[in-house]
């Protein structure tokens, strides 16, 4: 009778051990899927390499009735720049023009502004700074805000 009990105990232990192993495999699978999902969710919609750097800042046109030249630059700790995004928003009462300039002083991109303003420029950009020229022609008031992002390596 004693041998039977020992055999039963051995069988029970083996069954428990098998269940524990299966449970650990399922837990590992769930953990791996969770980590993979987290990584996919965190990197979605990023157009930067994980080793890249990002610098975002903003600037307001002080007086929309007057011409203004704004100089923007990358962050101090950024490496080589490869992209520039500029968001422009606000309202211009009248008509004006805003231009992103090449280093040689010629316009690269230009937008005419009047009324509500909301647009974005996205450009490959390989210099550490940029110049934006705002030129009003018949502006009586309003506000204009620029938010810019330099992307680098």
Set out the fold topology.
Elements: H1 2-43, E1 53-60, E2 68-73, E3 81-101, E4 107-124, E5 129-136, E6 141-152
Structure description:
The protein has one helix spanning 2-43, and strands spanning 53-60, 68-73, 81-101, 107-124, 129-136, 141-152. With 153 residues, the chain is α+β, with helices and mostly antiparallel strands. The N and C termini lie far apart (75 Å). It is built from 1 helix and 6 strands, in the order αββββββ. The model is unreliable at 38-51 (pLDDT under 50). The longest helix is centred in the N-terminal third of the chain and has 42 residues, at 2-43. The chain is 27% helix and 48% strand.
Nearest-integer average pLDDT = 82
Helix/strand-derived class?
Answer: alpha+beta
| Largest sheet features | 6 strands, antiparallel
- CATH T-level fold name of the largest domain: Jelly Rolls
Strand content: over 45%
For the record, the count of structural domains works out to 2
User: Count of helical segments?
Assistant: 1
- Give the SSE order as H and E letters: HEEEEEE
The geometry reads as elongated
Q: What is the correct CATH architecture of the largest domain?
A: Sandwich
Question: Uncertain regions: pLDDT < 50 for 5+ in a row?
Answer: 38-51
CA(first)-CA(last) distance:
75 Å
State the name of the first-level CATH class of the largest domain: Mainly Beta
User: Percent helix among the residues?
Assistant: 25-40%
Can you count the beta strands?
A: 6
The radius of gyration computed from the alpha-carbon positions, rounded to a whole number of angstroms, is 30 Å
């Amino acid at each position: 009778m004693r041998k039977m009990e020992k055999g039963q105990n051995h069988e029970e232990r083996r069954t428990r051990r098998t269940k524990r192993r299966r449970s650990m495999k399922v837990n590992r699978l769930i953990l791996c899927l969770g980590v993979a999902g987290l990584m996919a969710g965190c990197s979605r919609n990023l157009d930067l390499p994980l080793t890249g750097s990002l610098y975002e800042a903003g600037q307001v046109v002080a007086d929309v009735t007057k011409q203004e030249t704004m100089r923007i630059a990358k962050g101090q700790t950024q490496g080589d720049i490869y992209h520039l995004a500029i968001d422009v928003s606000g309202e211009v009462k009248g008509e004006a023009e805003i231009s992103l300039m090449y280093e040689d002083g010629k316009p690269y991109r230009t937008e005419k502004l009047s009324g509500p303003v909301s647009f974005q420029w996205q450009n490959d950009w390989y210099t550490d700074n940029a110049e934006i020229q705002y030129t009003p022609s018949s502006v009586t008031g309003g506000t204009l805000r620029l938010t810019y992002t330099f992307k680098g390596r």
